[in-house]
Amino acid sequence: MGVSTVPRVPHLEDGAITDLQRLTVSLRGGSERRDECLLFSFTGQLDAYSDKQFTEFITDRHKGETLPVVIDLSRIDFIDSSGLGALVQLAKLFNDSARQFLVVGNARVVQTVKLVRLEAFLHLQPDLESALGSLAPA
């Protein structure tokens, strides 16, 4: 019989992370250290079943770094209140350590974030290019 492979998630924008690892059944994530930031990219669902893995993935990889953090959620299909809670927790963590923190969202993420009026607190950006362009110079 044939060999089974895990399909790679194609990137939607130039510069997006393409090699994403499975964090849960419904969430994949990847990270990359760039000159200007730590970039995290996710696809799938950010909800009560994945918020803990999402938070741990980011907190484990940012330790010892001082670069700004960009979280790309432009390929997230669904976000619920648990996912929003995870974002708020991360925003507080990075604000407390005076690190710049930006979230990139798609229409679904933006609608959910705006519904609870967190767009300013999460430094919501319309796309990855805008987020990278708005980073404060080092």
Automatic annotation (TrEMBL):
<dbReference type="InterPro" id="IPR002645">
    <property type="entry name" value="STAS_dom"/>
</dbReference>
<dbReference type="InterPro" id="IPR003658">
    <property type="entry name" value="Anti-sigma_ant"/>
</dbReference>
<dbReference type="InterPro" id="IPR036513">
    <property type="entry name" value="STAS_dom_sf"/>
</dbReference>
<comment type="similarity">
    <text>Belongs to the anti-sigma-factor antagonist family.</text>
</comment>
<protein>
    <recommendedName>
        <fullName>Anti-sigma factor antagonist</fullName>
    </recommendedName>
</protein>
<dbReference type="Pfam" id="PF01740">
    <property type="entry name" value="STAS"/>
</dbReference>
<feature type="domain" description="STAS">
    <location>
        <begin position="38"/>
        <end position="135"/>
    </location>
</feature>
